[in-house]
What does this fold into?
Amino acid sequence: DLARFDEAIHAPLRLRICGLLRRVDQLDFAVLRDTLEVSDATLSKHVKTLVDLGYVVSRKAASASRSDTRRLTWLSLTEPGREAFDAHVRALREIAGTLP
It folds into this structure.
């Protein structure tokens, strides 16, 4: 239960990405993009940073609901990603003076 400020997660969009992914097992790239109201390129750039750090994994899968051959991109926080995000949130709460 260590608090650890993480500069990579702290960037506003990456913080929001991790926060949304923390609540679910996986999320479709398009749903995440639309929820965050950013472009594909912007989301891709930030997801790549998180993937390079080992915080997020990306996998492609066919969609049963689509008639074409395009595949969906699913994003998930890794266990190290969850731990880093949780530690970062604890650090923010510590800074804000809201830890019990």
Observations:
- Helices lie at 7-10, 12-22, 29-36, 40-52, 79-96.
- The chain has a mean pLDDT of 92.
